[in-house]
Every structure is written in structure tokens, then in C-alpha cells.
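Give me the fold.
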Amino acid sequence: MAGLKQPDDKSHFLLPDLGEGLVEAELISWRVKPGDAVTTSSILAEMQTDKALVEVPSPWPGTVSELCGKPGDIMKVGKPLVRYAVSGAAPAAPTAAAKGPACVSASVAAGVPEADGDQGTVVGTMSGTLTVSDRFARKPEHTVAAPVSGKALATPAVRRIAREMGVDINKVAGTGHSGRVTAADVHGFAGGASKAGFAPRAAAAPMPLPAVDKDGVSQRIAFRGVRRKIAESLERSVRTAVHFTVVDEADVTELDRKRREYSKVVGQKLSMMPFIMTAICRALRKHPSLNANVDDANSEILIKGVINLSIAVDTDSGLMVPVVRNADQCTMVDLANQVKVLAGRCRDRTISREESLGGTFTLSNVGSYGGMFATPIINYPEVAILAAGRTKERVLVKDGRFYAGLVLPLSLSCDHRVVDGAEGARFLNTVVGLLEDPSSLL
């Protein structure tokens, strides 16, 4: 890196932003050890972000003195990653690598401030192995990036930042690999960065709660009990899980006919619910990534071998979600009876806490109250929920012929941290296929 002066004292290389807005990354392995001499762009470590394995290069030549972490550690962006030794000084003992977070930052000499001069961004697509750009090091003040012409090179995330800031990205001079525009370039263009690089904005102060007009209040209801627990659970789900929703419709004309026949055979009226539950169980065996919990405390995805279906039940006290255990081993009649019993216990408040634990997937019947499509909120720590809407008669076409059919709307929400969009769509397609072919379902 031309113009970069080697620090006169020990200096720290701070972990840069390895993506667009990432705050941490897992240290997979070190590629250097204390005492190693490195050159500019020598690979120091491999880091795992939420999308890819990233190689982190050295911003300048020197001798590695300390490694500020050990494999498996979660490293925070902006915290020391590597310490460089003073020229001619003895390297630190190898045990320094085991100190991990104990490695503390010191001021960087020779005009390379640790707050803004040695952090950068990643360039390239977020798949496979990425290489961090040379923007980790501070450039001399007289260095000016070449003006851009035509369409700028930038990732979708950087383009989004530019749109949100009202910046024409095609006018921003890119300093990344091959002239790619980085997030720091956008902030710098907009005046939100220092001359040395991106200066992180101060955290916004919490917004004060708005005043509520007390005029005309007819009743005051304390926000507590089941309703408060529901609110806390939903808030945690929205704050933690990354929701996306896929919708589709199933032609259940033939299934409805089979349902009526089956009800006569067993001597009990059955709704669509046990049939949908059975289809879900079959689909979860084919797509096990949706039959899971997320253990955020230990950073683990727990794929479950059992299928425990959580069933959303509307009560006077609010939404409750009891669990039908081993639902894949139950008959249609068993499923119908268990749902009826659990729903009754929810409504008379005799349901035990244990009967609401251990769910692996949730089904919500929004159609019983007239809804069609929905954007259901995941029953955290589960990773998916299916909402079944109200069936409607509709004119359908099959093999070039019109007929009066019955359509069931379905809405699937998944945690994008665990389930890819394509897998969510495939799961929903499997459910639809089973519902449209009752012979395979039964």
C-alpha cells in the first residue's frame, strides 16, 4: 500500500466489517503465528460470517506479535485482531493467542488511528471464499480515487445504502477491488466519513415514547398476564428470527370429497385440520430443515427427529399454542381429537406449561375466522409456521376444462437464518401436492 508508514510502536489491526453491516464473525483458523513476518496482503486469518468464509489480509508489512483470539471465538468488528511488534523487538510469547479478548487496543502511532484507519469492507459475491479489500489501511491524504464513469460496480447491499442516503452511486468513486464502490465510499461521498475512511455513526438515542391521548377512554385493561407473555414472545420472535413468507393455493376439491367420505366411515365429523396436519408431517420428513429449533444461546440449529406440531388456538385471553406430540404417528381421528382436547384446555385455562413446550413446527388456522392469506409470526424458537386460510369456491381450469373447485390458501413464514427461500417454497409445494392428491395423503 503506497504511502503507508509502518508504525513506530506496536500497532493493532482492528477487525473490519466483513460484510455490509455485520457486527461480528467467528474466527475459524489463524494462518500466521506470533513471530511470523508478513507482507502487505498476507492472509492473517480465516473468518466465518453468516454468508461465507472470508480471508482477512494484513494491511501492512511487519512482524506479528500477538493474536487476539483463538479458533472458535466470536470476534467483534472494530476490536483488535492482530498486534504488530516494533521493528527489532522480540515477539510476544505464543501463549498470547490463547488470551483472546484479553488483548486490548492501544493508540496507533504514525498517524494510523485505530478508529478509522485500519478498518475496511469486503468485496466480491457472498459465496465461497472472499478476499478482504486493501481498504483496511489508511491512504495518504493526497491520494484521490479516480472518478467513476458509467454504471458503478457495487453489491446490492451497498446500492441499498446509497438509495437510503439519497446518493447517486454512479457518481461515487470506488476504492474497492477493480473500482468497486463500498459502503465506506458511499458514506464518505455523503459527508458521513472522515478523510481517513468510514467513521461509524454514533448510536441513535432511544426514541421517547409518544404521548397517548387519554380523552374518550371507555375501558382500561392492564397489559399483563397471557396477553403480555404473548406480546413478549412475538416481540422476541420478530427481533430474533429473520422472517420471510411464501404463499400458495391448493385445489382441495377432491380432498374435501374424501374428507366427507372419511367422516362417515369413522362416524365423526372431521375438519380440514387433521388432513393439513398430516400433509405437514409428511412434508417435514422430506424437508427436515423446517422441523427445527434455533438455540441462539449456543449458536446452534437443532434439527428434530420428532415432529411435535404446535397448534395456534384463539382464546379470550389471547393466542395460545399447545403441542400435539409425535403428530406424524397419529391417525386423522387422533389428530382431530387431540386438537379438540388441547383447544378446550386452552380456553378454560387448564392447559399445563408442559403441553405448550417442545414444538417443532406451528400450524395456524386463520381461515376459521374468515381470513385467507396471512404473514404469520414464527413461534420462536421454531423456524417455520404455516397459516391455513379460508377455503373458497372458485372456477378452476384443469386439462383445458372449467369446473367449480374448492381452493385452500396457505401462507408459510420461515426463519431465513435457517431456511432458504427456495427450500421454503419447495416445502410449501410438497404440502400443496399432498393436499391435491388425497390418495397419497391417506
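The first strand starts at residue 11 and ends at 14.
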